[in-house]
Predict the structure.
Amino acid sequence: MSNWKTIHSDFTSQLQEQWEKNNFTYNQAQDWINVGLTPQDCSFAVYLRDVVNCEPEEALNFVSNIGELRTQHQEYLQSQNEEGEENQLVRAIALSFGIFDFSDNPLKGLTDEEAEQYLSTKRLSLKKYFVFNLGQEVKIKPKITVSDSTGEIVSEPIPNIRQVKPLLAEHLTQLFNDGNDKSAISFTGKNTNQPSLNWTGDKLDQKIANGEEVYIVFDKSRIKANSSYVKSKASSTTQFGDMDWPEIIVLAMEAKPQVQVFQSKKNALKFLREKEFEQNDLKKLIEKRTNIPGEIEEVTRFEAWWNKNLATVISNDYGYWVFLLVYEKERNDGDPYVLPSNHLYQGNYGIYVKKRERNKSLSKAQNEAKWLRDMLDGKNPILVVHHLANSYDNLYWIINSPYVEKYEVGRYDNNTFYWPANLDYHIKPLSVIRVEKENTRFGRKYYHVGVYIGKNEVFHIYDYCTVKGMKSRIDDIGTFLGDAEGTRRVGHHIEVFQPIVPFREWKKTIRNIVWAKEVKYWDGIYCLANRNCEHLANTMVYGINYSKQAVERKFWSRVGCKFSGSACFSRGGCKASNNGKNSICLRNEIEEVNNNLGEAEAKNKEVRQLEARIVVPDKIPTDKCRIM
C-alpha cells in the first residue's frame, strides 16, 4: 500500500483508509487534493463525484471557488439528515475542527489519534488558544545553563526553564513572530516576573515526567511583550549583567483564567471545543437569532448567580458596541433576550460602548464587557444594565421590554376562563401577574395584581369580604382569580410580567414575602391610591413602591381613603396617589425597599420551600434555548 503522505502531509493511515473505502485510488485522491480539497474532505469528494457528477478538473467550472461548493455540500447534508438543532450544532463544532469526515458520526467524539492531531498540528489555527502537551513536548534534559564567552558553563541549571521539542518550537516561533526562534519555556507563578514554587526544579521535572496526558492551554489572543501572563522573551540578572533571552518564552502558570492546565486529553479537548465554537460558529448562531447590528467581533460566555447561560457580545457597526445576551429555559422560541434591545443602540441608552475610532475602540469595548460581566453578579443586576436606573421616569418605561417580558397565559371559551393545570410550565416564579376585574358598585375596571411564587400559588394583598380586611397573604391561583365581594372578573387571560434581569436578589425577595405574610403586611391600612395590590407586587419583585393604576385612575385618589379604614383622616380622600411620587428613580426605589422591608430568617421552613422552586437557567439549557 502506497503512502499517501506524498500527496499531502496531513494524510494519516485512517484518512487514507476512508478514501480507499470510498473507491478512490491514489491518483484520484491526488487530483481532488490538487483542486483544493484536503485529506479530511473525503465525504466532500464523494458528494462532488456521485451527486454533482463531476471530475476534479470540472469542479471549479460550476462555481467561482471551492468555498461555494463546500456551502452547497453542507446544505445537501442538512437536507438529507433530519437532525435536531442540537445535533446540527455539534456537527458544526466537529466540522470546524477540520478533522472529521462527513461520513463519521460527530456525536461519537474524537478518536485518540484525531484528538492528538487537533491538539498539536491544528493548534495554530485555533482562534484564541494555544495548547501543548507537557509530557510529550517539553524536555527534562539537557538543562538550561549560562556559559561565558569561551563556552565554559558558569552557572547552575536554571530551575524553571526547559527546552521544548521541534514541533512545539516551530509553532511557538510562528505564534510570537518576533524574528526570534523559540526553543524553551520559562515557567513562572501568577505573573511573568515571579517564580513559582510548583513549577520549578524537581517539581517541574516530575510534572513533565508524569505529564503525558497533561495539557497546558493559554490564551493567545492578547499576546503582548508586556503581558501579565506570557512574554515573548525571558530576562534575568546574571554575573554577566542583565540578559535578554529572546528564544525563551515566559508563561505564568498560575495566571487564571489565561492559563489552564488539564489532566487529560479529553478535558483539554472539551475546553477547546467549547471556546473555539464560541468564537466561530457561535457568531453565526447569534447573527441568526438576533438583530445585533454590524459584525460580531467577540463573544464571551459567563455565569451569574441568577443565570448560568449569559454572554456579552461586542459588535462593530461604525464603532464598537457591547450587548448582553440572556438565555431563559422557559422561552419557547430559543432566541436570547438582547440588552440593550436592538433599537437602543441608536440613542443614548445605557451600557453599550459609545462609538469610537475603529483602530482604538475594541480594547475599550473589551474592558466595558468585562466590567459588565463582573457587575452582573451583584445583588441588584438590573441597576447595571437599565438605562433609566439613575434617572427619574415613569413606571411604564422602567417595567418594559427588554428588561421585563410581558405575555399572557390562559384562554376564554364559551364565557368560561381556563388556565393551565400547572402554571409552573408557563410562569416563572417571582413574576408579577395580574387579571382584569370590575368593581360592580362603581362600574370601573381594574387589575388585581400579585406575585407568582410557583406551585400554582400567588402572594398578594386580598380579602374575600371587606376592604378593611385586606392583608398580605399566599393563596392558590383559584383564590387569586376569584371574585371578592362587589367585584367580578372580566379578563380573559392572566397577564405575566417576567423580569429578564433580576431587579432584586431573589432570596431576599422570598424572605420579604414570607415576612410580609407572617406579619400580615398592610393589614388594616389598605389604600387604593397608596397601598394597593399593585404597590405590593411591584415592591416585592421590582423594589418599586409604585402603582401604574394609581396614576392612570385619578378616581382612586378621591375615594382611596374611603376604602382604607384608618389610612387617612381627610374626608376628601387622598390628596395624592403613589405617596406623592410623580416619577421613579429605580436605584433610589430599590435601595429604599431593601432597607425598609423586613425579612424572615433564611432557615425558615417556608423560605426554604419557596427557594426550592427557583430554577436558575443551566449551563446546558433546553434544546432551543442555548448559547452553545
